[in-house]
Design a protein that fits this description.
8-stranded mixed beta sheet
Length: about 240
Amino acid sequence: MKIFDRYSRQIAVIGDEGQRRLRRTSVAVFGVGGLGTHVAYYLAAGGFGRLYLVDSDKVSLPDLHRQVLYSTSDVGALKAEAAARRLRDINPEVEVEPVAEEISPSLASELAAKADVLVDALDNWATRHVVNRAAVGARKPLVHGAVQEWYGHVTTVIPGVTPCLQDLFGRLKSLPSCAQGFCPVLGPVVGLVASIMALEVFRTALGSPSLAGKLLVVDLKHMAFDEIRVERDENCPVCGYVGR
């Protein structure tokens, strides 16, 4: 079919039905910064049906070394809207909805109800936990990633099957965060971790997430990748009730 010409190289890998599954899948990307711009690019280019881009920030000059959807002319523009314009140009077949609002529990729950897969590409843990609770409440898969300096990690949360972010990280008092407005990181580190996240969204949409119940830890200073198996705690205050 002519409609699939755009995706011919990936159809050779996932088949026509795989492409149709992507087309039927909607994804909410929370955070359209370093990680989120890369993830959103691959999802739009890959033919996912609908993308919700959630970010209330504006583009700034220091963003440009790693946030690949933006150019110098976008400085000062709302990220969600600038990213949506770029993605529509890349692939007009994909519906892209910018959501330039602060992430609140009600907004996260609303989008979790609409989307099939959620992506946590955020830069602070308070907001990540809001999205995590919404994903668990809606029983929707959540692909989570984080980066700092040379390092990053990725995991996929399947409510009722794997630990959620509260279960995995909630007990830690000090975690990397860019909440103060400055996050030291190399652009290629962001690109690699985000590419893994995007691939995991593809795999989740196709029914075979590879990082469910696993935490992939990436150390690009030493080119080391470690995969840690993680078990779900049924006493977790957020996800412990799911599946009982």
